[in-house]
Design a protein that fits this description.
By secondary structure, this protein is α+β, with helices and mostly antiparallel strands. It has a single domain, classed as Immunoglobulin-like. The chain has three helices and nine strands; from the N terminus they run H-H-H-E-E-E-E-E-E-E-E-E. Strands 1, 3, 5, 6, 8 and 9 form a six-stranded mixed beta sheet that branches. Strands 2-4-7 form a three-stranded antiparallel beta sheet, with no helix packed on it. Strand 5 and strand 6 form a beta hairpin. The N and C termini lie far apart (about 60 Å).
Length: about 150
């Protein structure tokens, strides 16, 4: 009986430590928003992010394949979350990352963009402030089909 009780405690402890924020479930309107300002408002409320050079957003200047554009984001700002948006596809929100305590904010992903446009990152700081940066890129003819 003691062994099974310890197993239950271990499973309960694992469940708590592995939990993550499910932004799709908690903020569903952010995922159907058609514009970046609407998506930001749906995700964070009525905030005005400040432009910051402490956010490093990278992507190729010209993407030969709009179906798989490599994007990386890194910041030394102590962050609670990082959101990535784009302004050309029907839905603006691309991804939202919750930043666990003690984790470095450094992510890479591939996104789709059907034509040339901008990628915007918003960092929710642990200080309660919001920071942003923007990157423009060109998608070669063919967009997501490229």
């Amino acid at each position: 009986m003691k062994k099974s009780m310890l197993s239950l405690v271990a499973i309960a402890a694992m469940t708590v430590s592995l939990s993550a924020t499910d932004y799709r479930a908690q903020k569903p309107d952010a995922w159907t928003a058609k514009t970046i300002p609407t998506a930001i408002k749906s995700l964070y409320g009525d905030v005005k992010p400040t432009e910051s050079s402490d956010i490093k957003l990278k992507a190729p200047k010209v993407a030969s394949n709009g179906g798989a554009i490599p994007v990386s984001i890194k910041t030394d700002i102590p962050a609670k979350s990082i959101a990535i948006f784009q302004d050309v596809n029907p839905e603006s929100t691309v991804a939202v990352f919750a930043i666990p305590e003690g984790t470095e904010a450094d992510f890479s992903l591939k996104i789709k963009m059907k034509k040339s446009g901008s990628i915007i990152a918003v960092v929710e700081g642990k200080d309660g402030k919001f920071y942003t940066t923007k990157l423009s890129l060109e998608v070669a003819l063919g967009g997501c089909e490229g």
